[in-house]
Amino acid sequence: MDSRLTIVDVTGSTNDDLLEAGKQGAPHGTGLAARAQTAGRGRRGHKWDSTVGNLLLSLVLRPCVNPAKFSGLAAVSGLAVLEALEKQGLANEIRLKWPNDLVARGRKLGGILVEAARDNEGKPFAVCGIGVNVNYAPQEVPDGGLPAIGLSDLNESVPAVDVLLKEVYHTVVNAVDAWADLLDAMKENTGPLAPVHGEYVTHLNWIGERVTARSPAGDELARGIFQTVDDFGRACIETEDGLRSFHFEEASLRPLSE
C-alpha cells in the first residue's frame, strides 16, 4: 500500500493537490505527504503552520457510504491518528477535542480537515488532511485558539516523521474501511458516528466539564456542562435552559474557567 503514499519536499497544500487528483479519479487510499507546505490551511480557512519537521499528510477517501455520512470522517480519522500514535508509545497524554483536533496539556497538537467533493464523473470523494506537530510547535496562536505543543515536548524519544507518516497513513485507511463496513450494515437513518461513538466520546476532552460554545465570529452561543457528542457529531451541552446541540459548523468549544 506504500506505493499509494507519495512524499514530497514542499508543496502549496497537500489537501489542494489531492482535491485536484481526486477530481481526476485518484483512487481510495491515495496519500500525499510533504516536508513543508507554503499554503497549508486548517478549519474555517485558518492558516496551518507547515514548518519542516512536522507530519503533513492528506488522503483521498472514497468510502462506500452515503456521502451525507462523510461528516463522520473527521472523528474516525482523529481516532485513527490517536491509535497510530499509541502504537508508537506516544499517546499517553493526548486527547481529542471536538470536532477535529488533537490536544495535550491544554495545547493543540494536531488538526484534521476533511473536505468533500465530486470527481469529473460525478462520484463523491473526500480528502482528509492531517497535521501533527512533531518536532516544531508554532508560536502563533489563532484567534480564540489554543497554543501549540509538539510530540517532542511530550516524549523524550520520537520516531522519525517518515515512520509516523506510514503508521498514520495505514491506520487511517484501515479505520475508514472498517467504519464504512460497519456503517453500511446499520440502518439508513443511523448517524455517521454510530460505529465509533463510544470510543470517540471516551477519548474526548472536557466531557463532564463546563464549557462555552462560540460561533465562528467568536460570539457566545451557550455555556454549560459538555455532556456528549451524539451519533450525528453534534456537541450536546446541558445549559440552564436545557440540553442544546451544536453542529461543528455552528460552534467551537472552550473550557469555562471557574
Automatic annotation (TrEMBL):
Chain ranges of the BPL/LPL catalytic domain: 1-184
GO cellular component terms, A-Z: cytoplasm
Record keywords, A-Z: Biotin, Ligase
EC number, UniProt record: 6.3.4.15
EC class: ligase
GO MF term (any one): biotin--[biotin carboxyl-carrier protein] ligase activity
Recorded superkingdom: Bacteria
Cited PROSITE patterns: BPL_LPL_CATALYTIC
PANTHER family, A to Z: BIOTIN PROTEIN LIGASE, BIOTIN--PROTEIN LIGASE
Name of the protein in question: biotin--[biotin carboxyl-carrier protein] ligase
Source organism of the structure: Collinsella aerofaciens
